[in-house]
Amino acid sequence: IDQALQASPTLAAAQAQLRQAEELQGAQERVTQWPRADLAVGSARQHSSPSAQGLPGDGRTFSLHSASVSVQYQLDVSGGNRRALQALAARTDYRRYQLAGARLDLAARIASTAITQARIAGQAEALEAIARNQAAQTDIAQERLRLGQAMPADVQALQAALEQTRASALLLRKQAQQSAHLLAVLAGRAPGAEPLPAFSLEDFTLPAELPQVLPSELVRQRPDIQAAESLVRVASAEHGVAVARMYPQIRLSANLGSQALTTGALFGGGSAVWGLIAQLTQPLFDPALPAQQRAALAALDAAAA
């Protein structure tokens, strides 16, 4: 089982999806907690004409160099960023429970397949032992027939029973081989590429004491139930994000830099430029927002159903 957990491509994909969800959650956390800062450096060559300002004269060609640092931060007054972070956290939990469920499912399938293989192999061995006894009885019956102490019908009946037993044993051996191939696939190996251990029913024992857990507590421990609860939390948080879009959004930004006609004067006196901006945006008419809110509410109802 340990080898299968290491080599399973299904578990590898689930682990990658979990890492993706964790990184997205971390990115949203940083966006919510910290402002965004950007550095911009530019250089332009342009020609201007005084005619654009209604003045006579020739135009002028010049270069303009600039360098600035800008900082932006969006205040989460409506709780949209917080709810988006909650949605990503719940989705991370969903991926984590999916991975745990995939592990349990793979381990259970391997154990079930191994027990099935051991049971079929035991039945095949028992039938082969019966076939050997029937073959010995058939030999004795043929000798008695040669001595005139048995009827041909008796020998034919024993031979028919022997052939039927051998056919049943051969069928069980084929089923055991199919179980071995399935076990190899579950273990992440090519069927027949590497020998797998042969199991017998004696290799499996029940635990001495079974855990005493209430059914309600046992259900709460199931990864599929926990994953479904995580999806409900995801839908609830995404509904909150849709509601928050209908409320005002406040964005603060600031920039500090310099502009000059030459690069040497870029950081000299008189070249500094700066700005402070506070922007409030309130949706007045956006027919998509109510529909998005209703869609998010329907998704929440579907997840909770």
Task: Based on the model shown, name its key terms.
single chain, 305 residues, alpha+beta, Outer membrane efflux proteins (OEP), four-stranded antiparallel β-sheet, 4 strands
Description of the molecule:
The chain is an alpha+beta fold and 305 residues long. It has one domain: Outer membrane efflux proteins (OEP). The chain is 58% helix and 17% strand. It is elongated and about 140 Å long.
What is the rounded distance between the termini? 35 Å
Main CATH class: Mainly Alpha
Query: What is the CATH topology descriptor?
Result: Outer membrane efflux proteins (OEP)
Q: Cα-atom Rg, whole angstroms?
A: 38 Å
Task: Give a concise summary.
It is built from seven helices and four strands.
Secondary structure elements and pairings:
Elements: H1 2-7, H2 9-33, E1 36-48, E2 60-75, H3 80-146, H4 152-186, H5 215-220, H6 223-244, E3 249-260, E4 272-281, H7 288-304
Antiparallel strand pairs: 1-2, 2-3, 3-4
Helix pairs in contact: 2-3, 3-4, 3-6, 6-7
